[in-house]
Amino acid sequence: QLRRRLSAALTMNISITYRQEDAEADRAVTLPPSKSIEARRLVLAAVRGETVCDEGSDQCDDLKAISGALRAYQRRAAVIDVHESGTALRFMTALYEVRITGSPRLLNRPLEPLAAELRRAGASVDRIDERGAVCIKGAWLNGAEVDAQSLLHSNSSQYLSALLLAEPLFRTPL
User: Fold this and answer.
1) pTM of this prediction exceeds 0.85
2) Which of 91, 125, 140, 164 could form a disulfide linkage to 115, CB 3.0–4.6 angstroms apart?
3) 124-127 and 98-101: which strand pairing?
């Protein structure tokens, strides 16, 4: 029930209605769609076992990479290419036993805060080739071993988001 409400909340358009002191009528502002929220919604859908569809060409490059990576995840592909998407790299690292690859520039980006917490939970996370591809091994991780507080002070909220989104797949909760 909570997951259904969360998913619905993530897909809603957000409107803010307000009244100025001297105005006779309410005014409404509708916020544009959020790439950040949509990326998390896609991951939650995949974790719940829902089919992740190709949303079309109107998606930004990050969302295309995440959608493609999640479809590969659902097929249990051995290698997932996340192209240039740092968001997809971080989220897929927490989700799946896989070799993740991408552009050379992407694979030089920091991943160690997330990798360190996954190792604490029982995973093996290694950079395995000259391009910097990441290999993750360790299903059913022990979430109780993760120090989520340490990720609050890291340079990216995506490290903690990745663990929270993958938590339903862990043996024990965070």
Assistant:
1) no
2) 125
3) unpaired
